[in-house]
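Record type: monomer structure entry
Structure origin: computed from sequence
Chain ID: A
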Amino acid sequence: MRLIYCFLICLCVLGCSAARQQFNKESLFRLKGDSSQKVIDLLGEPNIKVQEGNITKLIYQTNYKTYTPPTSEVYLSGSTYQQGQYLKSSCIVTFIVEENKVTDVFDIGNCL
């Protein structure tokens, strides 16, 4: 029984850490109006931080793979083995920060 609990905890930790590597687009846009520190607490340090006058841009990039199932085709004879494929995707999210508050969020690429 103890082994099962340890296994479940490991799965939870791995799942949570993997989830942080992919951006949930809907949740990111909810950060408008929050402090820049909350963004950093949730996503970690940005890949790039740009200061332009009184505007700060926090830029995050994530890369992930999405699975595309095989297309179904009908054959008159025999059966065929078809494979799906993993496609590389990337997402760049930029938080515009003015006076320590997120004023806007932009995304480029294939964000979730």
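Annotation 1: The CA atoms of residues 35 and 101 lie 4 Å apart.
Annotation 2: Strands lie at 48-52, 55-68, 85-98, 101-109.
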